[in-house]
Amino acid sequence: MRIDIISVVPKLMESFFAHSILKRGQEAGHVEVVLHDLRDYSLSKQRQVDDYAFGGGAGMVMSVEPIARCIRHLQSERHYDEIIYMTPDGETFNQQTANQLSLQGNLLFLCGHYKGVDQRVRDMFITKEISIGDYVLSGGELAAAVCADAIIRLIPGVLNDETSALTDSFQDNLLAPPVYTRPAEFEGIGVPSVLLSGHEAKINEWRFEQSIEHTKARRPDLYQKSGL
Ligand code: ADE
Question: In angstroms, rounded to a whole number, what is the distance separating the alpha carbons of residues 37 and 56?
Fold first, then answer.
């Protein structure tokens, strides 16, 4: 998979993709993440990428020209399965969307700033609009990083243990069960004895029951969706 990200602050995102699982995923060739500085596509001397809103009002609007130039340049090199605009008025991101996007070949993310992008960008180029929640960030970068992380860890081979993404919270509309590691006793508090039993079927059964209880208690809305 290849993920391209267009941003006015690409430096902000560099370190995020240069560590841990995301770094290993790239080094192993499972994914390539390429950051693009939108200002490189501005024709103005000041590398301007925004302008005042027609009709007035506070806040700048990201101009259509540099974005169109950047997207068309990238499109001339490859086909994008989705061109995604990160915006608080998009559809709310969830595990199902992450699963669907992880099956694609090339994704292009556009990070908004200021009051957002000129509507013509959305009408002409964008195929999907995603929000990561009902709050407003100062830019789409963190949101794009959140989506890219959730997507990349689902690509086969990126996680060491191939099955571990399948047992994540939300994969079946259930939250993950509690987990424990050594020591088996800490300040007098032990771990559930079934986990020390070595009995795989019983352990799986316990984990499933815990998932159900945990989901019922914390996310009754998800539990309903699970159909259990
Ligand atoms: N840009 C600003 N706020 C955002 C949000 N909540 N989700 C996605 N992009 C955003």
Answer: 27
In this prediction the pTM is 0.94
208 Cα–ligand 1 center, Å: 34
Sign of the C-alpha dihedral computed for residues 168, 100, 12 and 160 taken in this order: positive
Strands (E), 8-81: 32-37, 50-52, 60-62
Backbone angles phi, psi at 158, to 5 degrees: -70, -45
CA-CA distance, 162 to 27, in Å (whole number)?
17
Are 38 and 49 spatial neighbours (Cβ–Cβ below 8 Å)? yes
Angle at the Cα of 73 from the Cα atoms of 79 and 128, rounded to 5 degrees: 50
Tens digit of each residue's pLDDT (9 = 90 or more) over 116-152: 999 999 999 999 999 999 999 999 999 999 999 999 9
Best residue for ligand 1 mutational test, from 86, 110, 146 (most atoms within 8 Å of Cβ):
86
